[in-house]
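Postdoc handover notes: sequence design on the structure in folder B. Input tokens:
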């Protein structure tokens, strides 16, 4: 059995086995998500399910490292992701119990990103345009600053993706399903390019998230909480900028952005919506895509399944873009942009929420 199958299977099994104990722990320690005017659930639900996702992921990585071994470069990047991901889980866990202010959470996310970027040297040194041309940050004509541009850019990517997954976690099964689809997308491209470490990491992340879905799909027995949503977002962001992924132009820009296209767009329009409404960008509202779908008559299950389909289409587009000519890639991009514009106007997700 290939190494990535082992990673997926171990993460899946551990996540499935651990989750009932996490549910019990949440109930005994008071980690319950109470309903309010913005949320759609009607009774308190345990909310530290991210611990089970984290346990599944960690078990899979430890198993693979012991059974198959890792080379020095793999070890450095993997340890970096584990250490910084553990910091994110700790931050999320505290927030799930204490409801930390948004600024404190942001500071914690920046610190975790700083560990990965500054200590373990995982950073975005360049980006590419849709035609495969490399743009190196250290070649920017900005005296004294250009050599260090990779640091804030990578930290912005890590913190930004952490919050996009966090913000989309509004319906039973939504964030876990979207993260699973994004993980499978990056996994398939990694296998195509023979990036074994990336394949193992995304397989483990997908397995842990799919195991969690058994307990989280509507009606949910447990929520992942910030413990899970921030961990999934941070790990997807971190995995997508490891050394192997950055070495191929089509992956370095297109695949991570498209794989996470739904949460990225939802977050982008949330910011636009709040700025237009004159409210702080961190203030929660009921204008997210899943809220709009519910308001036009979709049930929770229908809304989540539709968003799975949208995420899968983004994923398929990402995979297609790695295998076609520049001309066809431009056509795909234009079609996607047109579909986004139509959807935004139809649902009004850029308008200020009521």
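Designed sequence:
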């Amino acid at each position: 059995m290939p190494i990535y199958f082992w990673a997926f299977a171990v993460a899946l099994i551990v996540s499935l086995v651990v989750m009932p104990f996490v549910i019990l722990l949440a109930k005994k320690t008071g980690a319950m998500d109470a309903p309010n005017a913005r949320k759609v659930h009607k009774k308190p639900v345990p909310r530290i399910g991210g611990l089970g996702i984290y346990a599944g992921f960690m078990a899979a990585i430890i198993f693979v490292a012991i059974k198959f071994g890792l080379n020095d470069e793999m070890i450095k990047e993997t340890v970096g992701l584990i250490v910084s991901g553990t910091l994110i889980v700790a931050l999320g866990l505290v927030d799930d119990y204490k409801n930390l202010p948004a600024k404190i959470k942001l500071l914690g996310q920046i610190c975790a990103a700083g560990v990965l970027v500054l200590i373990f040297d995982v950073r975005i040194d360049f980006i590419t345009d849709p035609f495969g041309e490399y743009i190196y940050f250290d070649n920017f004509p900005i005296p004294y600053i250009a050599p260090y541009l990779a640091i804030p850019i990578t930290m912005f990517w890590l913190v930004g993706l952490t919050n996009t997954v966090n913000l989309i976690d509004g319906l039973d099964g939504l964030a876990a399903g979207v993260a699973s689809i994004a993980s499978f997308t990056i996994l398939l491209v990694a296998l195509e390019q023979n990036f074994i470490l990336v394949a193992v990491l995304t397989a483990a992340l997908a397995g842990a998230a799919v195991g969690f879905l058994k307990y989280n799909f509507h009606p949910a027995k447990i929520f992942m909480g910030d413990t899970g949503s921030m961990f999934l977002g941070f790990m997807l962001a971190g995995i997508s900028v490891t050394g192997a992924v950055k070495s191929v132009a089509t992956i370095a820009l297109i695949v991570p952005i498209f794989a996470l296209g739904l949460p990225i767009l939802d977050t982008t329009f949330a910011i636009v919506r709040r700025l237009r409404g004159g409210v702080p960008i961190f203030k929660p509202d009921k204008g997210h895509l899943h809220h709009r779908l519910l308001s036009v008559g979709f049930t929770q299950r229908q809304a989540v399944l539709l968003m799975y389909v949208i995420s899968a289409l983004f994923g398929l587009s990402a995979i297609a873009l790695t295998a076609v000519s520049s001309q066809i890639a431009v056509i795909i991009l234009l079609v996607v942009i047109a579909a986004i514009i139509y959807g935004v106007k139809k649902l009004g997700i850029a308008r200020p929420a009521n």
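Context for whoever picks this up: Strands lie at 32-33, 45-46, 126-128, 134-136. Don't rerun without checking with the PI first.
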